[in-house]
Amino acid sequence: MNAWRHRPLLEWLGRRIGRLSRQQREGELSAIFISAAAGALMRPCDEALAIVDRGLAEDRYALGRGFWRLTDGCQVTLIYAEDLRRAERRHGLSLSAGQHRRNLVVSGLAGLDLRGVSLRIGEALFEWHRVRPPCGYLDRVAGAGTAKALGRHAGHCLRVREGGRIKLGDRVTLI
Description:
CATH superfamily: PK beta-barrel domain-like
Organism: Thiohalocapsa marina
GO molecular function: catalytic activity; molybdenum ion binding; pyridoxal phosphate binding
Domain MOSC: 43-175
Largest sheet: 7 strands, mixed, barrel
Order of helices and strands: HEEEEEHEEEHHEEE
Oligomer: single chain
Number of strands: 11
Strand order of the largest sheet: 1-6-5-9-8-7-11
Helix content: 10-25%
InterPro entries: MoCF_Sase_C (IPR005302), MOSC_domain (IPR052716), Pyrv_Knase-like_insert_dom_sf (IPR011037)
Pfam family, one: MOSC
Shape: globular
Number of domains: 1
């Protein structure tokens, strides 16, 4: 069989696969939440300042006031919008006002493994640190069953490697 005869098809497939790969590596920042102290309500923001090795300005963890700050704190937490919608649908919860207690809600990247990945959001660069599963504390401040509804993989800890402004609608690019 002559490989040259199939070259146009192979080139088209290569372009298509490349386009799909790029699409899967880009999402959008759908929501930003901060809280001034452990247990305080999460406050939605249109933008936030990411501070290197601290977190988001005015957030509990950057201020040293997070519940897990001494043992298990995260600089910034992230959750997929698709996981929130799934939990709302399956368990009849309302999570759109930050009851999930995560800082960043990202759409378009659900199901991707972030281990070993950096994320560019607006001016800031974040580095994946570890999975941040919901815990019993979430049930105490957001309502019984919230942690179970979100599931054990519904959250990621990020470290801020390059500071800067992030805004709603910013592209989230995996590096």
